[in-house]
Write a structure and sequence with these properties.
mainly beta; ten-stranded mixed sheet; disordered N terminus
Length: 421
Amino acid sequence: MSGTEGRPGLHRRRPARAWWIGLGGAGAAVVTVAAVLFATAGSTPPDAAARSTGPASLSASPGPTASAPAPTAAPATPSASPPAGATAMRARPNDGSGYWPDFSNTGYPRTPANAGGLGKVGYPGHLTDYTTGMSATRPLRVEYPDNSVVAFQRFLSLKVSIYGDNLTFVGCLFEGADPNDNLVQIYSEHTITFRYSTFKPSAYATPPGNDGTVSSAHAPPGTPFDKSWQLVTTMKEAVAVMDHNDIWGNAGLEMVTGFAGRPSRWTNNYIHDLADTARDVYHHDGIGPQSEGNGGPMVIDHNTIASLGNTNGLALQGDGVYDRIAFTNNYVSGWGYAVSIGVKDNATNITVTGNVFSAELSQLYGFLYGDIWGGRQRGSTWRDNRLQVRAGDGNKRYAPADDGRFLWPSGGGAHATDYTG
């Protein structure tokens, strides 16, 4: 299914391949490596500061030089807080303010000391290859002891299969190309954590069409289909903690939504520039798809979720009950319907507050699919969700006069007062 209606179609959560149309998977042999924490084998990519920071270009031979740099205008490490005067309504990603997650404060080059309270050093200026002989045409299996912390490693692969429980990756790079399969496939029972890590196509240093001054490319096509990757997917019941990651050139993030007392957590991530937005080859989903329902709890707070595309930035697309989903303080722009919380009006305990719904990028349909969000009678809250509109923005449904006005969960228009239902 093309996904042009903005809906999930017939894809299933397992296996991840089921909802793609396109190239067949490669049948290469698995490279098996019994990993040791902080392995130092392999070559070392050059410093991020030494790499080109111009517009994206296709690399002749993917390798260490294809690793994503950050724009030269960005600070070497993230600021403790945005500059004075930066506010949610006045700022945009990559405007130099650092208020929203963007190139200046996410991904491996921006890893600060003690990221996540782990006591590790900040980004040392280079990454270490996980092993020699890695290739974007061959899968890679990595296995770590439970509770390991893996820092400043580069993984280049058709697909990285990760084994081990309660693992934490900090300041790592995952890059490859397989448009019909997962870039990262996770076999963990309880928890998997990624902090300040980058997930990207191996053939590109920076997203095609994004010169580092916009949240996401304003025009298609983005990463070509045959150079893209599909998903990061949890194959067991591990709940993901995703913080300060830079994620682009893909089709979605298909992760467990959480369990009672163990919410999935998405904070300060930069999710942008999805692949091949010129064609309806597949869904373009940010967080998701979750196509079955009966999901939650989830905490999605202070992320940039911006891309052209045909489906959802938050892609909870099932008809089961979604419960205890908190979608707060995010910058959201583009997509088909930007946010989907189910295809039936049966969600419970949904919190949608403090979000900036920006007209920066063009949008196919609207900000909320089906006006579905739960409703106060089922413990849900919708408050202080505002429109950000500037002259020249891609979403022509709104005008600069709508800037700062409130978005309600019904009707789709701009309102002078906040929603109270």
